[in-house]
Amino acid sequence: MGKKKEKKEINEKVDVEAVEIEDDTWWWLTHKGIGATFLCISVFALLVRVAVSLHPYSGAGSPPKFGDYEAQRHWMEITLNLPVLEWYRNSTGNDLSYWGLDYPPLTAYQSYFHGLFLRFFDPDSVSLFTSRGYETYVGCHSSRKNDCAWHIAMLLLNPCLILIDHGHFQYNCISLGLTVAAIAAILSQRELLASCLFTLALSHKQISAWANLFQDKTDGASMFSMSVYYAPAFFSHLLGKCLRRKNPIHGVAKLGLTVLGTFTVVWWPYLHSTDALLGVLSRLAPFERGIYEDYVANFWCTSSVIIKWKRLFSVHSLKFISLTATVLTCLPSMVQQVMAPSSRGFLYGLLNSSFAFYLFSFQVHEKSILLPLLPASLLALEERRPFKWLMFYGLFSMFPLLCRDKLVLPYFALHALFMLLYHAPCGHGGRPRNARPNNTKFDYFDSFKTFMNGFIYLSSFILHIVYLTMHPPEKFPYLFEAIIMLICFYQFALLAFYTNVKQWSLLEHSTTEEEKKLI
Amino acid sequence: MESSSSTRQLLWFFAIAVCVKLLLIPAYHSTDFEVHRHWLALTHSLPLSNWYADETSPWTLDYPPFFACFERFLSIFAHYIDPQIVDLHNGLNYRANSAIYFLRISVILSDLWLLYGVYRLTKNADVKRRYLIWVLIVWSPALVMVDHLHFQYNGFLLGWLLLSISFLQEGKDLMGGFLFAVLLCFKHLFAVAAPVYFVYLLRHYCWKGLVRGFSRLSVLGAVVVAVFAAAYGPFLYHGQIQQVFNRMFPFGRGLCHAYWAPNFWVFYIILDKVFSFFLKKFGFSIQIPAASFTGGLVGDSSPFAVLPKISPSTTLIMVLLALSPCFIKAWTNPQPRMVARWIAYAYTCGFLFGWHVHEKASLHFVIPLAIVAVQSLEDAKHYFMLSIVSCYSLFPLLYEGQEYPIKVLLLLLHSILMWLGFSTKFTRASAPNTMVTAKKKGAQSKSIESSSPAAEKGGFTIGWVGKSYLLGLLLVEIWGQFLHPYLLGDKFPFVPLMLISTYCAFGIMYSWIWQLRWIISTT
Predict the structure, then answer these.
(1) Under DSSP, is residue B359 helix (H, G, I), strand (E, B) or coil?
(2) Which residues of B touch A44 (CB under 8 A)?
(3) A/B interface, count of CB pairs below 8 Å
(4) Which domain holds residue B124?
(5) Residue B508 lies in a domain
(6) What is the pLDDT of residues A198-252, one digit of tens each?
(7) How far off is chain A from B455, nearest CA to CA, in Å?
(8) How close A32 gets to chain B, by Cα (Å)?
(9) CA-to-CA distance for A444 and A288, rounded, in angstroms?
């Protein structure tokens, strides 16, 4: 008893000393160190994922093609039963029109292993363990443990990713996990490892037919997407760093060899004959799709309300236009990274280049918003408000897609969960309690926000309800989708502009500070 | 200001739990779902006099009248949402999404009552203790499994119990007694603690001189009688009271449920089996009873081969005997701060020695014990073990493959949270100090180094016995899930369940002995 009292007294003393800790809800959670916190949150994240996967997956019970789940199952079947070279060929045993393999080889290997292990191998574990690597980096740099716990929660409980992977049934988390690993490697100055990991991420999956653009060229490295969204940032950052070395050519050559070597290993079975290689490549680049599908909140889709791109230009010229637009929007952030490569600048660069791809590239799918979301969640500690903003509208832009998949309940539950965790008591949330020096630039952004945000938040909330309860007028069956798209595009464009400005304003800060952070 | 922020935080905890529970809506639900749906239909479409007489479905109403009224209240909304839910005949086995969503959400919302109970209990506790209690009760995996997966309204009922305890702890005995009487009219299984309530209230509330004491006794008696009259009066008026009691106390059920609850009788049965096995080996002729325990329900014939038959009255006497130290303590030294322990102890006894006990009944003492779990290091260690064991013993409730990862992750998360919370709460006094200084420097690695040795010395650790016991749980689970089907195939399908209940029975027995020792030793 006496001991308890004594402890209480000491506790009180402690409280006086550090008010910050006193009303800290999560003191006990972070007390044991980052490892335990990480374990705890990741178990919770796993629980949420398992719970989401109880809900119907994409195409469940809708013959004849059944959707993504059936596709994955079919690939397991193919990869288990057919020899490697047959995987991408149309044959009696392999009917390509029925969910032919159209992902790059690493996905095929993965299907193979899935077939072997019968899903005992959980794709999440990859992304979990790799983001762990990132967290150890962040852990060293953030002064408050609470920040770290909050950040881990934001990373692992990304509602968009959970909904797409476990509701919609896909394996995005693996390629994103590999990308996170690559980012972590770059942040801890291991460029060779980073380029190797990123190449793996590249060959893991294609999300859109962006690869079409490069079809004429013989460059195999650019054939596949998803992580291609990040390629400009990786490229410019690594280039910028190499240029600052004593021997730039040597550095570039080393990185180039690593990339080529990894590619060779992954694509080995297909390199024996040009026929096999071309077979794979043609499967990876579906031509028949147009510049946009459905209602994606990117530039082409949004502007098509006024300008009918598909009618005005041929597919080929559209490809060229979209390539030019994408490169042009990527360019500022690339230039910044080549000029002054820095860790934070790199993260902003990732965000900007993926935004550029999302907004302007050819054939973007709704779920591509995951790609800008990843660097945004890595930057969540610095860009708190924009992160929440992006998450909100990213989710919103996927709402029609998820409605079609009958994932309305998980959508709202995860949305609420995210908002709750974001506004965790005594976490960060809305209260800017500890004004960080970096956040002083918020002013012009704030005035924007107060002007428009309230109105748009409100209208998007109403749109949710309207979309669920009302039928659109017969004349415009996709009226609500179009409105959602317009709102989201406006937000995304604004955010992309803002992050570009932020990245360039990093230059104004004394570069010595950045250098110190790097070391 | 202080209280409003704490309410907000409690609501935050609750909201997180709600999000997870919402995600779990499409998961497996047991026949209890149809039971409750049928009760909605029954109370909605029949007059009060027929509630307990109806036999449209095998799931007849067997809860006390207040619960029936609660179902009647819910059925108003159910009718508004989808009339087929409350249709007595067309609604049988109705499993449309509307029914599932409505019933699941009604459980989630009725948990608000539990939340209020927790709030009342913890509003004067200090901050860190409060958070821990919230984590233990609001995020309880056992409640999620029983209420939100298996489907029952335990959270709501436990809310009444916690409210009653909170009033008793504040010294407001009359209110506490009133709430307990109401609880009994919701679910009569809670009556196990009634003797403890009786002794405590008689001594603490009424034993104040002859005149004052007598008047208080009559007030208390009047309150309790009024509650029971409100519940059973209408049925008495309609001449249904005999029928109500027939339904509420169905005799002819066996000593044990189909799946043995991990209690004392498990040992008794196994001892019987062992005896009969050896006696047969030595040449005695033993009649193996027809009704085997592993076969499911047990009839009237004695299921035991060697040991004497157990009758309901035997179990009653055993429960009362086990409770007697508690009576003595409550009589000699009635202290409000001990009430929660005594009540939890009573439910433990009822669980261990009771007749036809359900494994779900372990909630009745695990949840109240969470209140005292944060009071001392010893309590925390005991609660850590008990909570894991009781949660694990609920695993067979959810037997489908789809829910397997969910229950495992729930238990895992709960254990991690408990371990983190307790080990932070009960580190050596010096540890927080070094923590803060280290934290101020921003050197996080240093703080880990400085705090972990302290934790080892005097903090929250589990001895090797506890560790090996928990490891044994893991082995039992691995055996039941993987090795048994692999090695033995379909033979002896009852063995994994038997192993679980036997192994968990050790843990519950330990908890009972620990609680008994605590009750006897405190002055």
Answers:
(1) helix
(2) 413
(3) 120
(4) 1-251+314-421
(5) no
(6) 887 777 643 322 333 333 332 333 334 467 788 888 888 888 888 888 787 888 8
(7) 10
(8) 7
(9) 44
